[in-house]
Automatic annotation (TrEMBL):
GO terms for biological process: AMP biosynthetic process; ATP biosynthetic process. Gene3D superfamilies: Nucleoside Triphosphate Pyrophosphohydrolase (3.90.79.10). Keywords: Hydrolase. This is Nudix hydrolase domain-containing protein. It holds the Pfam family NUDIX. Residues 162-347 form the Nudix hydrolase domain. The keyword Hydrolase applies. One of its GO terms (molecular function) is bis(5'-nucleosyl)-tetraphosphatase (asymmetrical) activity. It comes from viral metagenome.
Length: 361
């Protein structure tokens, strides 16, 4: 555990959490932490408690500790940091569903579509986000085409019918600020250089003269008229995010991001902290390496009630429960690692129910 003080806070990397370097010198992939929340339909608390009692050792609480003597000394921790010494962790390595007797086959048939996964869709596509942030070169038509292919038809229409300032206002307006105030704060704030460069790129693409004189291969109108979205449905994934502070512990970060994005409270789910977190590695469209670390949780809210309306509407487009089959269908085909994570978790849950549920049948 690290402590944030005025003496050592610059020595802790906000990305990997290691000592002696800052984020800009970090060699690790860009790292996010998230939670895969699972519930079992029509079983109420008995199956949830079955997993809770066997695969967790502590309660699900987060703390921010502050020194009484030195108020600048703080750390962010959870009660589920690690299991007790000498306790074995469980690793999700199931590759098949095993059975020996007829009753176990019947259990599988009963449970196969009752295991649900909580997933989120982003408010904006990655392509739209990268375009608004100017993560391209105006002369690199291949990259711009890839960004447009990742967008929705509605996002392309927005680009066609709005100025960059209008797009930026729609993209960043989280607190119902006036357009004038938001743009002033953005163009004069921490990320002013990034957005000013993005605005300049947008204006260059929008000016037909730049295409005519060969400054750029194609203008914005070409991409709008000729590039079609590659996907008809939104992209779904698991709630996740990056550390907010250098001293934020991995699981604390995962819980915070999960609760912010879904609207859940800590009492609505329980971390199965005896199960090792599972990692996903991928390369983004920007050729940057990413790592996602997911913790498994069991849903503690009444399975027959809906509680999916309090999510973060600024970042999240929707929150839904999916069966395993539907979840696999809604994950993009290039996210092989995410499908593997989903499959391993599903196999683990089903196997445990098949072999340890003594009250069914």
């Amino acid at each position: 555990m690290e402590y944030e003080t005025k003496y050592n806070k610059k020595k802790i990397c906000i990305n990997c959490g290691k000592h002696d370097h800052e984020f800009k010198l970090c060699r690790d992939p860009i790292t996010s932490f998230g939670i895969v929340n699972v519930k079992i339909l029509d079983c109420y608390d008995d199956k949830n408690n079955l997993f809770k009692s066997n695969f967790s050792t502590k309660k699900n609480v987060k703390y921010i500790l502050t020194s009484r003597k030195y108020s600048y000394v703080k750390c962010n921790i959870t009660d589920c940091i690690r299991v007790n010494e000498g306790t074995n962790n469980y690793k999700l390595d199931n590759e098949s569903i095993k059975y020996n007797v007829e009753s176990q086959i019947q259990k599988f048939c009963y449970y196969k579509n009752k295991v649900l996964f909580l997933m989120v869709s982003r408010r904006f596509s990655i392509g739209f986000i990268e375009f608004v942030r100017g993560k391209y070169q105006v002369t690199d038509s291949n990259t711009i085409i890839k960004l447009f292919e990742q967008m929705s038809a509605n996002e392309i229409s927005m680009i066609q019918n709005n100025s960059y300032d209008d797009l930026l206002f729609f993209f960043l307006n989280k607190n119902n600020e006036t357009k004038e105030n938001l743009l002033h704060n953005t163009y004069n704030g921490k990320y002013s250089l990034e957005y000013l460069e993005a605005k300049n790129k947008f204006d260059m693409l929008s000016d037909p003269e730049n295409e005519k004189n060969g400054t750029i291969p194609w203008g914005l109108n070409f991409y709008i008229k000729n590039i079609k979205p590659k996907w008809k449905t939104v992209e779904w994934g698991f709630p996740k995010g990056r550390r907010g502070k250098r001293t934020e512990e991995n699981l604390s970060c995962a819980c915070r991001e999960f609760e912010e994005e879904t609207g859940y409270h800590s009492s609505d789910y329980h971390i199965l902290n005896r199960i090792e977190p599972i990692e996903e590695y991928l390369v983004g469209t920007n050729n940057v390496n990413y790592k996602h670390i997911y913790y498994l949780a069991i849903d503690m809210f009444d399975p027959n009630q809906s509680k999916l309306s309090n999510f973060d509407e600024y970042e999240i487009g929707d929150v839904k429960w999916f069966t395993f089959d539907d979840a696999i269908k809604n994950i993009r085909p290039y996210h092989v690692g995410k499908k593997c994570i989903l499959t391993k978790i599903y196999m683990f849950i089903i196997n445990y129910l098949v072999w340890h549920d003594e009250y069914l049948l």
